[in-house]
Amino acid sequence: MKQGIASIMRAAKAADKKTFENGWNKSKKFLLGRQGNDGIVFKLVVYALLISIGFVYLYPIFYMISQSLKSLQDLLDPTVLWLPKSLHLDNYIRAWHVLDFPRAFGASLLNSVLPAIAQTVSCALVGYGFARFRFPGKNVMLALILLTFIIPVQVVMIPLFLLFQQYGLLGSPLPFIVPALFAGGIKSALFILIYLQFFKTVPKALEESAQIDGAGAFKTFFRIILPISVPAIVVVFLFSLVWHWNETYTTSLYLGESMRTLPLKLQSFDLAYSQTYSSSNVGMDAVNINESIKLAGTMLIILPLLTLYLFAQRWFVEVIDKTGITGE
Amino acid sequence: MLLRLIRKRREMFTGYLFVLPWIIGFLLFMAYPIYFSLNMSFNRVLITSEGINTTFVAWDNFKYAFLSDPQYVEELVVFIQQVVFIIPIVVIFSMLVALLINQPIRFKGLFRGIFFLPVVITSGEVVKELFSQGATSIPIVERYGIVQFLEANFSSTWSEPIITVIQQLIIILWYSGVQILIFLAGLQKVNSQIYEAASIDGASPWEIFWKITLPSIKPFILVNIVYTTVDLFTNALNGVIGLIKEHMFKLNTGFGYATALAWIYFAIIFVILLLVVLIFSRNEDYNPRKAGR
C-alpha cells in the first residue's frame, strides 16, 4: 500500500517535471535559440558588446573632433562637454598655417606613395618566387626574412644612415625608395609573407596553361598572375602607404631639415606655432597655443588617411579575410 | 631523365631570378648594416667631422649597460612588465572582437570598418598627441578609483605597470587591429560542417567554443602573440628604444654603446619569442581543422 502511493507520487512528480521542461524548452528556444547563437538574448549581448567596444574605439576620434572645434571660451567652460557652442574653425586655419600644410603634405606624399609603389611591386616578385619555385637555400632565406621582421630598426639605423650619406641620398625620399625597390624597407617581411600566402592559393593550372602557350615565367607572372592578384596588391599597397606615411623615426633621421613630412611637423608643432604667431603680430593673432589648436593639427594629419580609408575600407576589410593574411 | 634535370635547373634559375631583388636588398640593407653594428657594439665610436673614430673595447659596452647604466636595466624591466600585461589583453580582446564580428550580424561592414580604423591612424606622433591631451584613457576608469585601489593594495613594482596599462587601455586596444584580421581569417577557415555536426550532437555554444573553435584557431593565437610581441618591441614609443636613440647622439657614450644596447634588446626579444613558440608547439594535439579535411 505504502509502496503504491510512493510510486504514484513519483510518477506525478516526473510528469510535473516533464511539463515544466517543455515550457522551459520553448522559452529557451525563443530566448537562446536552437543553435545557441540565434536567440534574442545572445543577439542582444553581441550587439551591446559590439556597440560599446566600438564606442571605446572611436572615443579618441570623437574627442579629437569635438575638442578641435572649440573656441578658448568653450575649452575653459566645464559645462561644454561634447558639443561646442559654436564651430570654431579658426583652430584649423591656424593649424594649417603652422603645419605649412601644402608643402608638408607634398613631402608626405613623396615619402609614402613612391616607396609604397616600389615595395608593392618588388615584394610581389619575391613573394611569387618563394611561393612557386623550388631552389636550394629557400628555407634559410625564409628564416632570414622572419629575422628581419623581428630585428629592431635601431640596430641597423646608423649603418644605413652612414651608407646613405656616402652615396648622397640623404634629404630626399631615396633612402626609402631604394630599399623598397629591393623588397626591403618598412615591414617588407610582412608584405612578402602576405604575397607568398596569396600566391599559394592561386591554382597552378593557370600558369601551366600559360606556359604551354609558350609564355615565359615572367610573362606569366605579369600577364596572368598579377591581374588576378588585385586584392593582395591593394592590401599591401595600402598598408605600405599608411606605414610610410606614419613613420617619424627614420624619416627625421634620413630627411633632416630639408624635407618635413606632416607627422614631423606635428613633432615640432609648439615651436612652429610660436614662430608663426609670435609677438611680431600682436593684436588679433595673439592667441596662445591651446589644446584645440594642437588637436586641429593632429586632425589635419590623419584626415588624408581617414579619407583614403573611407574609400578603401571595403577592400581593406573584405580582402584580408578572404585571402587570409596568414596560412597554417 | 636529362629533360627532367634541365627542367629542374630551369625552375631553380627562375626562382632565383624572382628572389634576386630580395637577396641584393638583404645583403646591402640588412646583412652589411648588421655586421657593421655588431662590430660597432664592441667598439667605442666617436663620430667626428673627419670621420668615424673607433677603439676596440671588447665587452665593455655590454658590461656598462648591465652594471653601471642607471637607466637601461630599469627601463627594460618596466617595459617587460608592461608587455606581460599587454600581450594577453591584446590577444584575448582581438579574439573576442573577431568572434563577435564573425557572428551573423547586421552592419557587419560598419563594425569591421570601425575595428580596423586604428590600423590606419596609429602613428607615433598622433598617438603621442592623443596621450598628452588625455584622449586615450576611458574616463570611467578614473572616476571609480580603480587606480587608487591598485596603489593601496599592491606593491609599487606591480601596481605601476598595471596602472599605466589601464591608463593607456584605448591605445592598447587600438593596437589590436591587425590581430583581429588574423583571427578573422583563422575563424573563417574553420570547416562549418564541424559546427553543424557538433550542434546536432547537442553541444552548447560554450562547449563548441572550447572544444572546436579554440583548438582550431590555436595556430593563429601563436601568430598573434608573436606579432604583438614584435609590434610592441619595435614600437618607437617605448622607453627602451627612446633610450637607445638618446645614446646614439650622446658624446660620452656614443654610437657603439647605443648599438650594444640595441643588441641586448634584440637578444631579449629573440629569447621571449623562442619561449612563446616552444610553449605553444610543445603539445600538438587534436586539430579539428586538419581532421575536417
From TrEMBL, chain A:
Gene3D superfamilies: MetI-like. InterPro entries: MetI-like (IPR000515), MetI-like_sf (IPR035906). Residues 105-312 form the ABC transmembrane type-1 domain. GO terms for cellular component: plasma membrane. The chain crosses the membrane at residues 44-65, 109-130, 142-164, 176-199, 220-245, 293-312. Its main location: membrane. The keyword Glycosyltransferase does not apply. It is found in: Cell membrane. One of its GO terms (biological process) is transmembrane transport. Belongs to the binding-protein-dependent transport system permease family. This is ABC transporter permease. It comes from Paenibacillus abyssi.
From TrEMBL, chain B:
This is ABC transporter permease. It is found in: Cell membrane. It is a multi-pass membrane protein. Residues 76-276 form the ABC transmembrane type-1 domain. The keyword Transmembrane helix applies. It comes from the Bacteria. One of its GO terms (biological process) is transmembrane transport. InterPro entries: MetI-like (IPR000515), MetI-like_sf (IPR035906), UgpAE/MalFG_permease (IPR050809). The lineage of its organism: Bacteria, Bacillati, Bacillota, Bacilli, Bacillales. Its main location: membrane. The chain crosses the membrane at residues 12-35, 76-102, 109-127, 165-187, 220-244, 256-280.
